[in-house]
Amino acid sequence: MELCHQISLVAGPIITALFIGTVSYPIMFMILACTFFVGTLFVLSLHSHSNTKDTTSESTTDSKARSYFKEIVGGIRFTYSIPILAIILTTSLFTNMMFSGPVNMIIPIHVNDLGWDGSAFSSLITSLGVGMIVGGMLTGLFKGFRGKFMLLPVILGCMGVGISSYYFIEELSFGLVSHFLIGMALSMTNIPFITYIQSTVPANMLGRVMSLLSLMSVGFGPVSYALCSFLLAKNIATPGHLLFFGGIIFASVSLSLFFFRSFRQMEQHPNWKKPAMEEELLPATLSS
To answer: What is the pLDDT of residues 182-216, one digit of tens each?
Structure first.
């Protein structure tokens, strides 16, 4: 799923760059609307199949009795009662706050200030997507960095340095390299952390924990945009300064993971240490 998402990040900017020079914006938005409509048809074709035989009457009654709000509160309490989950989600909150605004909002402004055009920005986004694909492949090659999680803060720290480097970039080629390395680091850290959560969290709590992770990584993006907009509107900082200091904060928060014993010992979890026999049998199971 991550690779499919990353491939779309590569194909999208390339197609957009071609459209910018050939069609008008109204036609581009019409094409966009059509793609969303086709996507809707695919979503409508999906069906959820539940096996009622595997669900006991007690669990069914219990699930009906609990309200949705109580389930959310229960998920939050469960997540923050386990130190390593709390550390992962809190780190995700701060790193995405420093990533969403500076990269998704400030870089286009910085590109414009450098005098580059829309095609240059599309090339940067394409480079980011290619880096994510390569990073995803490397993550699979190294088996999700199992047994090497101490490398993840270093990779995240390098990602922060890549964001800060935009303050010094004046040539497009350097921007493409920086975007490529940021994309690689993004995949090489996101996939192992998500895999770890899915491997260690009980099945009955997994959906709520993953929802909280999505909230931390995506839901607070608008907060980052608002903060960056405020700093720019009040002339407190320039786009270059936001990229520079945002990257430094990003790297500092990432490297601070080394100070937590729960993080240093996270791979000692019994569900994570057990032999990956089920993963080896997965292709045969799918084919049957």
So the answer is: 989 988 998 898 888 888 888 888 888 888 888 87
Angle value at C-alpha 189, between 183 and 190, nearest 5 degrees: 85
In a domain, 78, yes or no: no
pLDDT of 152 reads 93
Q: Quick check: is 130 in a domain?
A: yes
**Chain centre distance of CA 67:** 29
* Total domains present in the chain: 1
Gap between the Cα atoms of 59 and 138, Å rounded: 41
Greatest extent of the chain over all pairs of C-alpha atoms, in Å = 65
| pTM, entire model | 0.74
Q: How many residues does the chain have?
A: 288
Q: How far is CA 134 from CA 24, 74, 101, 243, in A?
A: 33, 38, 24, 24
Query: 179 near 209, Cβ under 8 Å?
Result: no
- Secondary structure element (H or E) that encloses residue 78, with its range: helix 68-81
In a domain? residue 237: yes
Which amino acid would we find at residue 174?
A: F
Segment of 12-16, 155-159, 232-236 carrying the highest mean pLDDT: 155-159
Q: 121 near 108, Cβ under 8 Å?
A: yes
**Residue 180 reports pLDDT greater than 80:** yes
Q: What is the dihedral of CA 268, 143, 163, 7, to 10 degrees?
A: -140
The rounded distance, in Å, linking the Cα atoms of 182 and 126 is 12
Q: How many CB atoms lie within 10 A of CB 73?
A: 12
Find the CATH number of the domain harbouring 219. 1.20.1250.20
Does 112 reside within a domain? Answer: yes
In which domain, by residue range, is 259 found?
1-11+88-272
